[in-house]
Amino acid sequence: MELSKNITASSNHSNRTEMLKDSERLEFEAFRERFYLSMKYLVIFFTILIILGNSLVLIVTWKERRLHQPNKYFIAFLAVADLLVGLFVAPFNAYQFDLGYTSSDRDNMSIHLCRFMLWIETFALTTSIYSLTAISCDRYLKISKPLLYKSRMTTSRSIKIIFVIFLISTTLATYSATPRSGSVGILSTGTGPCSSGADFEKSKIFYLGLTISAFFLPVLLIVIMYALIFHVAHKRNKMLVNGELGETINNQNQRTALRRDMKVIRMLLVVVGVFLLCWGPLFTLILMYYLITNDWDHDTSISFQYRILVILVISLTLPIFNSLCNPIIYVCLDQTYQEAFKRIFRRMMRRPEARRQQPPIELRSPRV
Questions:
Q1: pLDDT at residue 368 greater than cutoff 50
Q2: pLDDT attached to residue 2
Q3: In terms of Cα–Cα distance, which of 212, 177, 215, 213 is closest to 198?
Q4: What's the rounded Cα separation, in Å, for the pair 78 and 294?
Q5: Is residue 12's pLDDT more than 50?
Q6: Distance, C-alpha 234 to centroid of its chain
């Protein structure tokens, strides 16, 4: 009799536990739907601003003669990479929130669309990071060798460097889009038919190699370059204050030039800092997944599912937000771009006024 009671109590407790788990699961599914919908609208908003902002940067660089400089071409190339994110990566990411990351509709996705998204994501990432690396090296040359800068960093040389970056990015992106690479996309765009035959060991080798070659090594070089830049700039500023650079240096024009260079360096540091904040969490998650994935697989609690969903989706969305930040940083921190944007907007405002003020054309009858 006592045994029967224990079995009954145990059965009731088990049923209550299963009911609780089912209700928690349904609540989690509802939360995920609401969260995906919110992120979808947020990504659409980002997409519009990314296209507008980076298009303006490219238009201004093309129209303004003052921006036809080697270092500005690197920034324009960075804007091209960000524009590709706005035109292709961000809209597809918003489309994925409609499907859901576990939806069967993803399996019906075109294999060609999957491969293209793998290619464009990898190309945009590597173009961005190597453009930032080239910018940091360019700034170091400008600060450390100001007299030799114009002769060493010419327009043709900057175009050659951009072509090399384009070649590296294209090669890595093309390899990532092949079935042998094991890639399923940096922002998980390859999940679907592209990931059906993905091998874990191949994926591990690919993503660890991508993380090192396209993130940690360039970031390390960028940090070293900017540390050297600040060392040289601080030393030169100290010599300038003490009058150790000679009379030709101690004039107002060259002091202004030094201050302007330091403002540009601060602006570029903000660009790099934002890049690290936006891309760092994703690459950290990639390393954690491939190095300690067994610990993740054992934890199936609902609270863990909530945390991992929010962290994963935010980490996948932050790189898109990075493409929005760069044009805003240029407008806020770079005086040359500020003046160029103002001139462009003035011209745009004057044209409608000129059309309204233009006197009507009188048609005269021909003389007989």
A1: no
A2: 40
A3: 177
A4: 38
A5: no
A6: 30
Return the structure tokens found at 306.
């909530």
Is pLDDT above 60 for 20? no
| CA gap 269, 187 in Å, rounded | 25
Q: What is the DSSP string of 185-240?
A: -TTSTTTTGGGTT--HHHHHHHHHHHHIIIIIHHHHHHHHHHHHHHHHHHHHHHHH
Q: CA 184 to CA 188: how far, in whole Å?
A: 6
Do residues 314 and 187 lie in contact, with contact meaning Cβ atoms separated by under 8 Å?
no
In contact, 295 and 353? CB cutoff 8 Å: no
Residues whose CB falls within 8 Å of the CB of residue 250, separated by 6 or more in sequence, listed in order: 240, 243
User: Looking at residue 292, what DSSP letter applies?
Assistant: S
The token duo for 44 is 């659409």
Q: ∠ CA(160), CA(162), CA(165), 5° rounding? A: 115
Dig out the tokens for 52 from the structure: 């507008």
Sign of CA dihedral 147, 150, 153, 157: negative
- pLDDT at 359 exceeding the cut of 70: no
pTM of the predicted model as reported, rounded to 2 decimal places = 0.80
